[in-house]
Amino acid sequence: MKNALSPTLLAGLLASLLAAPAFAQDVVRIGHVGPTSGAIAHLGKDNELGARLAVDELNAKGVVIAGKKVKLELLGEDDAGDPKQGTQAAQKLVDSKVNGVVGHLNSGTSIPASKVYADAGVPQISPSSTNPKFTRNGYKTTFRVVADDVHLGGTLGRYAAKDLKGQAIAVIDDRTAYGQGVADEFEKGVKGAGGKIVGREFTNDKATDFTAILTTLKAKKPDVIFFGGMDAVAGPILRQMKQLGMNAKLVGGDGICTAELPKLAAGTMGDSQVFCAEAGGVDAGQKQAMEDFRARFKAATKLEVQVYAPYSYDAVGVLVAAMVKAGSADPAKYLPVLAKTENYKGVTGNISFDAKGDIKNGALTLYTYKAGNRESLAVIR
Per the UniProt entry, what are the Gene Ontology biological process annotations, in alphabetical order (predicted)? Predict the structure, then answer.
């Protein structure tokens, strides 16, 4: 037959049809990366569950792009909080042809992974990476929906010196991109407010014994100790401070500002002993939306929100809103629309991006703990 297609030509035709944009729009893949194993897996899972709730709710409502209904699919990867594993996870998502990525949790994994996404042209929104360097590499694909450490660390430094009236302030960091970065900004904030740093020590994010560095600091009689790192390390630090008879207040960034911290401290945390800031926060008018989110999250997962699940949820919403507005899930087509996001109404508040991909007018929430529960002190912008 003159019109018959050869097997080779037929295979090529089928391949081109399957690769066509119309087919790709049937399923829109959104990647999520965070540490879902290891000491801070509870935080990585919190972020992933927030993203998954957004996908489930959007699918239930129905998402239409360019007049065609699509199904959202979340592809979750574990980076274990490790930079090398983080870039491997990023490449795996790129190879899976994801349309966008929510993640990573940690600055130390988000920063190297951002190059992988930038090289592939895939938009990345981190719900929780706060190191300033994350958005300073000139990548057009890099965004975040929380304030950075310049704001967070500096605010905590001023708070420790002025509001907590720290006379002798010590600093410990875990040498990660996040921990060291926020500690550096804290130290600048203390000095800018006229406070005195009496000592600085460092550990690592896998350590469990802090007796040596705490004994060194105890001799300097600090009334405030800042820890740059995550709650899995802050909990044991609090326990060992108690064992050494140290009554100093512990101050930290969003890495320690979790619902899990009292459990990790194993009952050694005193009321109003810990003060922390979360790189995000909702004003009075937004509280009902956040409470509604927490209720839906618990109903869906049987778990309480740890820290950044609502920001993961909003990151998914921002990505999808840009796709809908652009009329395409093709990263090259919707990326310019994403970059111009203005006043997206999320559960965490209105989201707009500046030229670097940072959130405009990002909020911070200051917290303390009483009777094992986290209590909000103030929202600062």
Answer: amino acid transport
